[in-house]
Amino acid sequence: MTMNRIYDYIVVGTGPAGAVIAKTLTDDKKTSVLLLEAGANNDKDKPITDSTMALELEEQYYPQYFWQGEGIPQTGLDDRMFEWTTGRLLGGGSSINGEQYVRPTSAVMKEWERLLGPQWSPQQAVRRFKELEKYNGETDNPAARGYHGRIDIRQAPNHPTSMAKKLVAAIEKATGFPEILDYNDPDTPLGPFSRWQLYQNPNGRRENSSAAFLSQDIMKPDGRGVNGRRLRVLFNSTALRVIFSNKRAKAVEFLQDGKQQKAEARKKIIISAGINSAQLLMLSGIGPASMLREAGIPCIFNNPNVGRSLRNHTLNFAVFTTNPDDAALPPNDSNALYTGGAFLPDPTGSNHERRAVQMLGLGTEGMLTLTLIYLKPKSRGSIQIQNKDPLKIVLGDEGFMTDPSDMEAVKNIYKIYVKNIAAELASIDPSYRLVSPTPDVIDNDHKLEEFIKQNFEHNHHQQSSLRMAPLKRGGVVDRLGGVHGVKNLIVADASVIPFTVDGNTSAAAYLIGYTVAKRLLNRGRLFETEEE
Asked: Which of 430, 520, 436 is nearest to 21 (CA)?
């Protein structure tokens, strides 16, 4: 084992949370940070920079960019299996996702605030997002948007196509919700829209977390900081475990190019490894004592909540024929990617002011696919290690549809929203006809349930496996990310989300990372795990 690197902070992972933490902490030129990335720097590769390849990336899982593996059979979906993966490269999941920028709504942040305190209030969230984003788009509420941050956000396309306009009009008529201009405006969280907000430069190039926070003004190509910034990024460096002394996190063991290495932290170790964060905690001796004992790992702190509350949104589809004269995307803007969309409440009318459904239009040659995401699932999954081998894939069980209410909710999306949207689309243009599922399937409860199981697909909205909450309320970390039961160890990424977000998870990860980093800088002292 090679020694001895010593830094103020060690951060594991370069996704949204890890990248913003490393950059923010090293804005203080007295602070040194080691940032570990398991993959390589692929920021110049065409599949990463070219936004038109974003959807292909999400489907193909190229081994040079993704962790490789599958989750366990899903009992709620006839034992179907899905990929268990995320980005294994600079930028993490932000380098390979579908580029949708969706802030958590005020309704979600109010839940966070009630549980965790004022630093997670809707007002604080808006303030943080304004500091983070550089919005290139239109809004009815400019006071809620940021225009000078580091994350480029492009509203696209400038001129929506006739296909997008027809879909939006149909959703308006079918649901009664008028078209909205800016779904990230806290005042307009619900309704259909023709323009998505994407992590893109104004020219349409992907804006991943490394482009935003580890760019050439921050980091040299070899991973060293510039202009006196005390930042060191190590690529091809997989974290193996955190080392403790008297329950105080002191060092990280990691594998770099086949060699075992070790680095020490004077202040804090921050884990921002996404779906791999739970595994790293358990490998380090924090988790259910019985599981750790069976794996031969000394127990540092017995916390049965570790890996226990995994959540993910459901994902299904409806497919329509279209008018051959209708283009899905503008001919001069294929980077726009999507053909309209909507955020809607539960179709039954319960809690009509809160988001429960996300719709996204995907136009292809002669077809329009409407992606249907249920945002409030009650099903819970888990993450477990198989043994103490850090390179052994975990048992990732996402628990899809194990709570019967989730199946009922998705069926209602088809029975009410899809059926009514199909009718309105056909009245606008008879070329638009629902072909999957067919109307007779929607009207037959048994057939619809079987269709949903077979039509179901997997997204990468995993969250809450290391929930931010008091220990006695199922928590793994405290309100500032400090891991319960130990000192000097923080988790900051989507795995600590306390209540399921009502949209894509990357914006929430940026918020969590930025909030934790700012609090660390502003206090100028160590966080102690809070007694709760």
From this structure: 520
